[in-house]
Amino acid sequence: MTRLALGLIGLLSPAFAVLVLAVALNLPWPIDPAARAALPYLLLPLIQVTADRAPERLPAPILLVGGILADVCAGTPLGYSALLYLGVLGATRAVRTLAGARGPASALSMPAAAVVAVVIATLVPLAFTLQPPDMAPILAGVGLGFTVEAIARLAIGAVRLLWRTAARGAA
Predict the structure, then answer these.
(1) The domain containing residue 104 runs over which residues?
(2) Contact in structure between 28 and 130 (CB atoms under 8 Å)
(3) Is the pLDDT of residue 3 over 70?
C-alpha cells in the first residue's frame, strides 16, 4: 500500500505543483508591478522541464484546468493562460520528438524550449489583443525560470555526485 501511495504521489506531484503555482503566481501580490507582471511566466519552465523529463506526469487536461484557474485569479480572458501553457507543452513535446530524448541533439532542447516559450508567450497575447505585448515581463519571467531550473539541475547533480562518492567511500 505504501509503495502504491508513493508512486501515486510521485505521479501527481508535477501536476499538483502546476495547479498550485498557476493560482499562486497569478494572485494580486503587493509587489512592484513590473515584477508582478513577470510572475505568471515563471511557470513556463516548470512545464517545459516536466514535459521534457517526464511527459506522462503532466497531462494536457491538468494544464487546461491550471490555465483556467490562472485566468480566473488574474482576471485575464478565459483560455489565455491555458493556451499559453498548452502551447509550451505541445512545443516542448515536439522539440523532444525532433531532437530525441538522448544524444547530442537533446542538449539543444532547453535553449530551443526557452526560445519557443518566449515566442508562444508573445503570440498568445497578440492573438487576444491584436497588439504586441510588453516583452520585458515575458523575458524576465521565462529567463528567471530557466535560470532557476538550471541552478536546480546543477545542485541536484552535485548532491547526487556527493551521495555516490560517500556511498563508494563507505563500501
Answers:
(1) 2-170
(2) no
(3) no
